[in-house]
Amino acid sequence: MRRAFTALSVVAAAAITPVVAATSAQANQSTCVNYIGNHGYAVGPKVKAACSHPAFQGPLGDGKIPNPDCYSGLVNAGVRGTDVYRACVRA
Question: For this UniProt entry, which residues form the secretion signal (predicted)?
């Protein structure tokens, strides 16, 4: 009985973990995309691709650092500097 419970717990954790991870990553991408859209830019595949690169946690836990791939992707999509930074820290 104990082994069956342990095996069931492992299987359940393995099934749930990807869903939880995907949901939080998607939420951050959506926040970045929404920020761009709310600031008057057209949201297309380039913006969505750029926002798919998540921000990094600061070295001392002191906030987020934009991912260079997000930053360059939004610049190439025509987004201006301040808006790029603010969107990418939300990714």
Answer: 1-21
